[in-house]
Design a protein that fits this description.
Layout lengths: L2 H28 L1 H22 L18 H70 L5 H43 L1
Protein name: Optic atrophy 3 family protein
Pfam families: OPA3
Family: Belongs to the OPA3 family.
């Protein structure tokens, strides 16, 4: 899937999460099982809030304070809001996580491609070294005025020039793609 299609899909899911969260919220208020769950969640949140604030003892500090539970209407509203916001947060978190994983996979694929290309370039360098060694050895053993040898030498140097041009092109492509990856990684992180 292309990057643009993925981002549009992610935006669509995020946009649809708000109406879905509102539906969850309204169903939580009407459905009996959801109502009980909302009341339980809201009461636990209410008690946790008082504990976090440190309001568990009376002013004298010796008698534990009884925390009054929320009324059912307030508890249902609070619990439904919590479920709705949790859903929206989960969708946003999953969208960010999936974008991160996709970027990591793309980077790993690019790294594999670069490694394969570099391996190919190393093979080309070995081949170039063999051609140069061959010509150096041949040149020292034979008469430089020999026409057949000069034709062979010319052919080999043309071959060497083609290989060197190919290696140069590959290195330029790797440099360009490396810059693109750096730009992409910076965009994902920001």
């Amino acid at each position: 899937m292309s990057s643009l299609a993925f981002k549009i899909g992610s935006l669509l899911v995020r946009t649809l999460s708000k109406p879905i969260a509102n539906t969850i919220k309204s169903q939580a208020k009407e459905h009996p099982a959801f109502r009980r769950m909302c009341i339980n969640v809201a009461q636990k949140m209410h008690r946790a809030e008082f504990r976090l604030l440190g309001v568990t003892k009376n002013r004298a500090g010796n008698v534990p304070l009884h925390i009054r539970p929320l009324n059912d209407a307030k508890a249902v509203e609070t619990g439904a809001n919590f479920l709705s916001e949790t859903f929206i947060f989960s969708v946003a978190g999953l969208a960010i996580l999936s974008e991160y994983i996709r970027a990591k996979r793309k980077d790993a694929a690019r790294r594999r491609q670069v490694a394969e290309t570099l391996e190919g370039l190393q093979d080309e360098i070995v081949r170039l070294n063999r051609i140069v060694e061959k010509h150096l050895c041949t040149h020292h053993r034979h008469d430089p005025g020999n026409r057949d040898e000069n034709n062979t030498l010319s052919y080999d140097f043309n071959d060497l020039h083609k290989v060197m041009s190919h290696v140069n092109t590959e290195i330029e492509l790797l440099s360009a793609s490396d810059e693109d990856v750096k730009d992409t990684n910076q965009k994902v992180l920001s």
